[in-house]
Write a structure and sequence with these properties.
Blueprint (H helix, E strand, L loop, with lengths): L4 E8 L6 H11 L2 E8 L14 H12 L5 E6 L7 H15 L8 E5 L16 E4 L5 E2 L2 E2 L2 H9 L12 H10 L3 H19 L9 E10 L2 E7 L8 E2 L2 E3 L6 H13 L5 H6 L1 E7 L10 E9 L16 E8 H4 L10 H9 L5
Length: 349
Amino acid sequence: MTKRYKVAVLIGRFEPFHNGHLSNVKQAFAIADHVQILIGSSYQPRTIKNPFTFEERKAMIFAAIGNAQNSYNCTAIQDHKYSNNDWICQVQEVVARQHPGVDDKDICILGFDKDDSSWYNHAFPNWTFIGLEGYIEYGSHPIDSTKIRELMFEGHMDFIKGAVPPPVFKYLNFFAKTPEFTTLVEEHDHIKEYKKMWSVAPYPPTFFTTDAVVIQGGHVLMIRRGHAPGKGLWALPGGFLNPKETTEEGCIRELREETKLKVPEIVLRKSITARELFDAPDRSLRGRTLTHAFLIELDGGDGSLPRVKGSDDAAEAKWFKLSEIDKMGDVIFEDHKHIISTMKGRSKK
């Protein structure tokens, strides 16, 4: 039987893969020879929003779909928080690479227009967009990955049994016994309490932080976070702005407090070559958080890197080769990998 399309594209984070997602896959099977599942937000650290690795999500999907007669595969795609065009280009390249020779007219993309976050459904004008029927109802409430994760972290596993395929439920029970899950529960509790403290504010608060991108001799200075959120992850030196300081003053203060960088303050200030605001609405799980990043380019001097030592909120401070950063996506905090990449492009040296 000839189907309408050769390839149907499904994009999602699948955190975790639930019965609504499975229904979407079945709808795609009905109209296309092959279903290309693109797993977003891949190769990032575990967070309460993205608790599972790409490999774990791929395994859950394959276990849920089983040995279907239909042809399908799963491919990782990464976030490009500050460039929709780069993200779109990545998707186009992946589909072209996975399906060489398939004409655009033979490709469709299936999606559910949930809210503004579903903008990508209409980002590929050369492919036919097909709106999905929506998620399967679970009881009186629609299936929602956010709610499933919340129930997981609060110990209510039995409440999600009917919302996910049996193999996925089996894996979630296994995952709930791992050290990684324990760490995520701690982060969930921390962020929940953090938001509770601000719940009495008359308006949703906006937080302002600063970050220092210190580069010398092809290396960038980073700290390992000592506390939640992101405990154990590598991050840029930085933190919240004090009420009576400028962003530059806050950046230098946090840099010196967290790294004990052996460079005079006057030299740090004179070495600032660029500054930029990073304001993606979802860049921090703590709430709406804007950060002002400063590029500090130090001269090589005698060829050695200045001594550093983690202190204050930092468990460790360390210089990393710039060439290493692209491979460290799963251990770098929030959007700091994107900040480093952007600021490196602003270099004047």
